[in-house]
């Protein structure tokens, strides 16, 4: 009993020491402003989608889905198999040839995450990625296997509360930097704010999300952007409410008068029903768009 208690105590202390380093690592630049952007823009889909998935104990998963976008309808069957660090995805679509993706992920060091994604037959969409986290610093790089390959680099310094970051995309063929983005992010338990500048200083975006309770069940967000070349502003505000463990509602409205709403109802642990709607207040004579998505996991 004493040995088992000692082992449990040692595991507990090791886990606490590992997690104590996590709060010191800053966010990656790709995460700056992601939470408010997801609240006001993600999930409001007007498509009609139905999917059924089955999983096996060996790591194989089969998903059949049907999607209707306007007057176009497509059907697909996707198979996924996971074995250790490798994942194989095969998709057969009614509108395109068979597509295969092989993904290899490995952590060579506790702070280094690497992955390679090979796609066939469109191999030019394949990528190599690496993420490196250290105390007060985070680095990420991505290399595309396109016929005009590009390297995307991003770095951020700071802590989990305040981080400054920069991102650039370098085109090897032309030997030019196509994009240079920079910004900062401030994260607290009850809010998340960020300001980023992209397109070599031609685009500015400010994002903010506020949580009204410690469980983050009620939230409000705002995203405002400005394009200096066109002297255009865009504003989108929204809110979400997690009513219980199975029901979530959220809505957003932008400065053009477009209102979007989404209802998410979790039937089982992985099965979900989503109903989305879109209303243009400047064209009330049009029928509001309604989207329906149902995913069932057997």
TrEMBL record:
<dbReference type="Pfam" id="PF01459">
    <property type="entry name" value="Porin_3"/>
</dbReference>
<dbReference type="InterPro" id="IPR023614">
    <property type="entry name" value="Porin_dom_sf"/>
</dbReference>
<comment type="similarity">
    <text>Belongs to the eukaryotic mitochondrial porin (TC 1.B.8.1) family.</text>
</comment>
<dbReference type="InterPro" id="IPR027246">
    <property type="entry name" value="Porin_Euk/Tom40"/>
</dbReference>
<dbReference type="GO" id="GO:0008308">
    <property type="term" value="F:voltage-gated monoatomic anion channel activity"/>
</dbReference>
<protein>
    <submittedName>
        <fullName>Mitochondrial outer membrane protein porin 2-like</fullName>
    </submittedName>
</protein>
<feature type="compositionally biased region" description="Basic residues">
    <location>
        <begin position="1"/>
        <end position="13"/>
    </location>
</feature>
<dbReference type="GO" id="GO:0005741">
    <property type="term" value="C:mitochondrial outer membrane"/>
</dbReference>
<dbReference type="InterPro" id="IPR001925">
    <property type="entry name" value="Porin_Euk"/>
</dbReference>
<feature type="region of interest" description="Disordered">
    <location>
        <begin position="1"/>
        <end position="22"/>
    </location>
</feature>
């Amino acid at each position: 009993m004493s040995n088992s208690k000692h082992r449990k105590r040692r595991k507990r202390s090791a886990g606490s020491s590992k997690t104590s380093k996590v709060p010191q690592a800053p966010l990656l630049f790709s995460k700056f402003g992601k939470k408010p952007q997801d609240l006001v823009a993600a999930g409001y889909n007007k498509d009609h989608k139905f999917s059924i998935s089955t999983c096996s104990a060996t790591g194989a998963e089969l998903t059949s889905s049907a999607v209707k976008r306007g007057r176009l309808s497509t059907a697909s069957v996707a198979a996924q198999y996971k074995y250790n660090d490798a994942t194989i995805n095969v998709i057969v679509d009614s509108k395109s040839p068979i597509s295969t993706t092989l993904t290899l992920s490995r952590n060579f060091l506790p702070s280094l995450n690497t992955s390679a994604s090979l796609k066939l037959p469109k191999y030019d969409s394949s990528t190599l990625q690496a993420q490196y986290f250290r105390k007060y610093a985070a680095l990420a790089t991505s290399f595309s296997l396109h016929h005009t390959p590009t390297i995307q680099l991003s770095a951020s310094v700071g802590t989990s509360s305040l981080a400054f970051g920069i991102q650039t995309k370098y085109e090897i063929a032309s030997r030019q930097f196509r994009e240079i983005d920079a910004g900062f992010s401030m994260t607290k338990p009850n809010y998340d704010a960020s300001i980023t500048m992209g397109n070599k200083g031609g685009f500015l975006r400010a994002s903010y999300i506020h949580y009204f309770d410690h469980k983050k069940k009620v939230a409000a967000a705002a995203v405002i952007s400005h394009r200096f070349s066109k002297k255009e502003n865009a504003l989108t505000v929204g809110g979400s409410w997690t009513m219980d463990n199975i029901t979530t509602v959220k809505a957003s409205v932008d400065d053009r008068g477009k209102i979007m709403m989404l209802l998410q109802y979790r039937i089982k642990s992985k099965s979900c029903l989503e109903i989305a709607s879109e209303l243009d207040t400047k064209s009330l004579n049009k029928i509001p768009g309604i989207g329906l998505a149902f995913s069932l996991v057997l």
